[in-house]
Amino acid sequence: MWLVRIVWLCIRWLLRDRTELAAENLALRQQLAVLQHKSKRPRLRKRDRIFWALLSRAWTNWRSALLIVQPDTVIRWHQRGFKLFWRWKSRSGKVGRPKIELEIRRLIRRMSRENPSWGVPRIQSELALLGHTISEAIVRKYRTRHRKPPSQTWRTFLDNHAQDIVAVDFFTVPTATFRLLFAFVALRHERRHVEHFNVTAHPTAKWTSQQIVEAFPYDEAPRFLLRDRDSIYGEFIQRRVENMGIEEVVTAYRSPWQSPFVERLIGSIRRECLNRIIVLNERHLRRILSSYFVYYHESRTHLSLNRNAPVPRRVEYPPEGKVIAIPHVGGLHHRYSRAA
């Protein structure tokens, strides 16, 4: 029986297709080339994988000549190549869902950033009212993620209660004789108006409470009094403020940014006035500040007030006359107006 099998194999070998013999020869030569790489464990390169993947498609008996890798490995190479081929063939500018316009994406992020308490449906509804029909999935994809629960900022609190907030603070001014003076200011947030100021060399709780009373005579007391944690605001002042029906809002320790408007006012006083003048005494400083606050209220423009002054100035057009300069604070600043 075995003799018959040997004879059959010999006849089959003699009669097999010349193309199959060439493919087997090519496969064996390729493996010899891989084994000749200068390494103890030769690695197949990309071109070797491509060769076997293509050969497995063209020759049915490719497994019989394979020695250096498993047939399953070649099949996996072929499947990977098929995926890459179709990915390349299917690429175009209109793959998948159409892209959302950059303007809409920026608008979604802006709404989410400016309104941290808004959810996806709220943003989607707002976009619909602006003519943008967007799905909730798109809004959820492009909105800003907040790491912690949304909470109003100090700026939001100040803006919502600007009409009812007055901030108070002290700042120091050295004199020509190196004496230290203390200036007290009370600023109303609504129009950045300085309600009251005064100067002393020896500030006390009684003196400070009297300044608060003078700043808000009759029924002009605000609802909130924003202050820092200076020790001068003791129990005596707290009782006086409470009797006036004012609620105190105390900033955090060493956090001047929580009372930004009065801090900005003090910075403007220093930059625009006191840093250019040598103060002689209390009377001199009081006169300088009086002159500066006239300029501050009636002439100085503020970005937060739509580029106008605390006491609003009307727009003067060219036909009203030529421009003239009106000096303020001894000529340190000027107001420009039109004169017929």
Task: List the keywords.
five-stranded mixed beta sheet, 12 helices, elongated, 45% helix, two-stranded antiparallel ribbon, 340 residues, Nucleotidyltransferase, domain 5, 7 strands, alpha/beta
Annotated CATH homologous superfamily of the domain at 157-281: Ribonuclease H-like superfamily/Ribonuclease H
Question: How much of the sequence is in beta strands?
Answer: 5-15%
Globally, the shape reads elongated
Second CATH tier, the architecture of the domain at 157-281: 2-Layer Sandwich
Q: Could you list the spans in which at least 5 consecutive residues all have pLDDT below 50? A: none
Report on this structure.
The structure is a single chain. The chain is an alpha/beta fold. Among the domains are: 19-87, no CATH class; 102-142; 157-281, 2-Layer Sandwich (Nucleotidyltransferase, domain 5), CATH 3.30.420.10. Helix content is 45%, strand content 14%. The strands form 2 sheets. Strands 3-2-1-4-5 form a 5-stranded mixed β-sheet, with helices on both faces. It has a two-stranded antiparallel sheet with strand order 6-7. Strand 2 and strand 3 (193-200) form a beta hairpin. 15% of the residues are buried.
Quick synopsis:
This protein is 45% helix and 14% strand. It is of the alpha/beta class.
List the SSEs and their pairings:
Layout: H1 2-15, H2 18-35, H3 46-58, H4 71-90, H5 102-114, H6 120-129, H7 136-142, H8 154-160, E1 165-174, E2 180-188, E3 193-200, H9 205-215, E4 224-227, H10 235-243, E5 247-250, H11 260-272, H12 282-298, E6 322-328, E7 333-339
Helix pairs in contact: 3-4, 9-10
